[in-house]
Amino acid sequence: MSADFQHGAASSWRRAPRPILSAPDGMPPAALIRYIDAIRQGLLMIDDSGSVIVCSAPARHLLACLGMALRQDASALHLLRALRAGTAQFRGAVLQSVRTALIEQQPVTFELTRQDHTVQVELHPAAGGTWAVILEDVSRRRAIEARADEMARLDPLTGLPNRLLLRERLAEALARLQRTGEACALLLIDLDRFKPVNDTLGHPIGDALLEKVADRLRSTVRPTDTVARIGGDEFVILQAGVRDAAGTQALARRIVDLIGRTYMVEGHLLTIGASVGVALAPEDGADADKLLKNADLALYRAKLDGRGTYRFFESEMDARMQVRRKLELDMRQALARREFKLHYQPQLQLETDRVIGCEALIRWTHPERGLVSPLDFIPLAEEIGLIVPIGEWVIRQACRDAMTWPAQMSVAVNVSPAQFKSDRLVETIISALASSGLPARRLEVEITEGVLLQENEKTLQTLHRLRELGVRVSMDDFGTGYSSLSYLRSFPFDKIKIDRSFVKDLSTKPDGEAIIRAIAGLGKSLGMSTVAEGVETVEQMQRIRLEGCTDVQGYLISKPVPTEDLVQIFASYPSQV
Ligand code: C2E
Ligand code: MG
Ligand code: MG
Prior knowledge:
The protein is 46% helix and 23% strand.
């Protein structure tokens, strides 16, 4: 610091000839200087000739931090010259501020930074062409802000960039692409089977697993790539400097392999998987939104194709998605427009040759497409949660319709996994029974393995609550899943519905009969009735009767029909009347 600043005992100096600072009445200027020195902010005063006439001790210190040493005869010009260290752009900005303050006679504020120091400068034009300059050290504040800014861009659990930072990096990569032609790739990663880990072992284990996933991802990319976490179990890799798709494909394959390897978390051996959707820039999009959207479409495809795999974006994925979206929109309106109808397929009890009940099967008459099969829209309705209101309508309508049938006739409704997940199922059933007046024992709920696949306490509780109400529970499509047998042990079903594929195999495959016989025997021992689905021929019916099934359902008895047409069918099985 320049020795010129040392000025007697008082650490501030005041230029001798024309002090513009006048002390209030009765207060000597030296005392005033002491006060000014005591203020944390630095004060500079510049007279109408541009000379610095007051420079408080904190001001001197702050200027020194910025590498500026003021001589006693310093002028505002010296100050500006001292800025020469900054970039031309920076100097320009400061000069512009000074100019604005001069012309508009308004205070202006700007910041000067040197190394770790940031000083806020306020220029106050005062009367008669004089200036007051207030300097304040804002280094700490700015450092905290910078840290907060950084934290806002990081995922607190894994320390990886979050969606915000990913967006910024993506924007930079795309700008680079424009400038230099350097291609990049976006890999969207979704963990398979992560949720069950979180649900069954708890969040601390889930979190620890996510940290391990993050480590593995970090370990397999180059320093120039970005690994981000953008959701619960969603990660993204932005691969920079892509030369050809082969490099990206190798990375995608590595991710699927790495994430799929076993983890050891607090004594638990865990296995999850990864589905990966890939979009390349510029081929699949040169803006961030499009790339993200296309990577998402590819990810969707990877999941549909059985998960644990990667897919690159292809343009027809977009077209397929448009169709799906249209179907989704239409389905959302179908309930309000009353486009759904229920058809009923009778079930015949073999021992008595009586129709004992009917299964409700939903039908959708689309205004343009005509009849849409439930196989085409139920899975989508499940996926987007629309099955909950649709299923509720089915239950209510089926109960109402069954009230118009003979008193012993039951009605079976298909209930999807998503309906079990929502808390409303039992309430809906209670309400549907109450408002229709149908006795609970006449209602049957058909569930598939999908419901039990997510078997947890809650699903079983729901099933038991239904049983307590008097509602019967059937296992649908038996034999098609992975472990139908073990599910039979988890809950005392009333009925097993043998999947249609086994009935079809009766005449074509030698083991067809043996399988049906075994299931019928199993049902008998467990005290459950067994219904053979999809019986189309008299021959099939005879064989099924021989194998010991208790009931049959199929086109041979009747195709699914509207409730109005049931009267005729009921009448053609006179023994039940
Ligand atoms: P599902 O519950 O196994 O229903 C039996 C399916 O087999 C019905 O198909 C029925 O029309 C068909 N079927 C019955 N007998 C025969 C036969 O002799 N030959 C042949 N080839 N097919 C026969 P649909 O109506 O197309 O329903 C398909 C599936 O859609 C149902 O399988 C069920 O899983 C689901 N579904 C239908 N309605 C609903 C509903 O209201 N809610 C839910 N969640 N799912 C439903
Ligand atoms: Mg069914
Ligand atoms: Mg079935």
